[in-house]
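Problem 12. The chain below contains 246 residues. Write out its predicted structure in token notation.
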Amino acid sequence: MSAVASEWFSTWFDSPYYHRLYQHRDHAEARAFLGRLLTHLHPKPGARLLDLACGKGRHSRYLSEQHYDVTGVDLSAQSIAYARQFAHEHLHFHVHDMRDAMPYGPFDLVLNLFTSFGYFAEEAENVVALRNAAAALRPGGKLVVDFLNTDRAIRELVAHETQTVDGIEFRLYRHFQHDFIVKEIRFEDEQGQEQCFEERVRALTQERFEEYFALAGLRLAETLGDYHLGPFDPATSPRMIFVLKK
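Solution.
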């Protein structure tokens, strides 16, 4: 199954404005989180890692620097084209839809980080994606799914804000609609044309994830609640970070 144009992520993630809007993300925090996660999970030196939904490969590159054999896959052809300039013998990038069977592997560790899940219109596709990730793991391998704490996110949803980046005023509108947290991104491009993109993430609860994991044949080992790997608290944790075993 290939992504069709009507799927929001197939256009927005390939837009230069996506990368412009989010260019100020805290990459130092992300690297620190990855470092803690590797210490916590302690994959062996040279272990095979899959960065599932790797974007432009920034985190795949960091993982490779830690002496692992890393494969990064992403739906965005433009992101993978950019990432491939950094590829080498132990760092590979491929265009891949996580709803399709993984032709790479087996892996010791699969990482799906920074809310790169729950984008699909059909809920069954989430289970398909997890089954494919599980199939790409060697027996005894681990999968990490890092997702927002949906209950807290909905409770603290900021309905409207404006961010000006590189002279472009991005107007952001957020709401909860039909089981999805939706963010509309509106702005005028350099030609003065009004642009509108959308991000839609299914509001998956801890209980729903656990149902998915059971259907995918994965065992939940632990649930962490933040990028410092604190325990998950449904009321206060900013993240739901699931560590699963095959």
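Discussion. Residues 8-149+203-245 form a domain with the Rossmann fold fold (CATH 3.40.50.150). Students who got a different answer should revisit the alignment rule from Section 12.3.
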